[in-house]
Every structure is written in structure tokens, then in C-alpha cells.
Amino acid sequence: MIYVDADACPVKPEILKVAERHGIEVTLVANSGLRPSRDPMVKNVIVSNAFDAADNWIAEHVGEGDIVITADVPLAGRCVAAGALVTGPTGRVFDQANIGMATAMRDLGQHLRETGESKGYNAAFSPRDRSKFLETLDRLCRRAKSTS
Q1: Residue 95 sits in a domain of what CATH number?
Q2: pTM of the entire structure?
Q3: CA count, 13 A, side-chain hemisphere, 147
């Protein structure tokens, strides 16, 4: 199963394409605004607007060998702890080896923004990011299928 933190995910069409090629079900989780799919392999879950509702839903349902796509580092940490394969929409993989550093860097960045030391601008999503994501997701799908 692939779980997608879908509210601001820029690679939803790519996820669906790769999942279809591998025959893996996809669950898109969002607070609102998901376009219905006729594909029986795609499920939309609309959660409340409560803070972290989508993250909490994903963390409660994800399991060993599932794939999660999220840019949210705290959610990535929860999913890695549950045994999931986790990547961000830029193809950045989160795993046991790097989630601690990713969390520390996120916390540092948040602190710098709160103190005014940093403006907190994110780089624009690029074609290179999309390409790296496709490569990463394909690799994670093969890995998930080989362990199931």
C-alpha cells in the first residue's frame, strides 16, 4: 500500500502512474479537495481540518513495508518507526539512518524562522526533483514488493 500525505503533494499523478505499473494500491489522505478516481486501486480519505489529522490518520494505518510519500518530517519519523518506506516528493528518502538528522535540521530551521534569523523560503519544485522522485518511488515499490 502507498499512503500519500496529499494536501500539498506536487507528484500525485506520478504516484498513480508508478503504483499502477507495480499493481500497488494507493490511499490519498487529505483535509479536502481530492478529485475522485474511478480506479479501484485508488482510495481517497478525507479527514477533518484538525491540526495533523491527515498525518495522524496515516500514522495510525501505516505498517511494515508500506510506502509513504510526505514532506512532513515528523510524520516521516512516525512512519519510519512503524517500518514503512518513506520518501518526500523530491525523492528524498527517510530511513532509520537519517531520520534523526532530518528531524534535527527541521527543528533548527523552525527555530531560525521563529527568531527571524531565516526567512524560511523553500526552493521551487523542479523537473529534476520530479525525475528523482520517480526514480526513488519506483525503487521503493520494487523493494516493497520483494519483501511482501
Answers
A1: 3.40.50
A2: 0.84
A3: 15
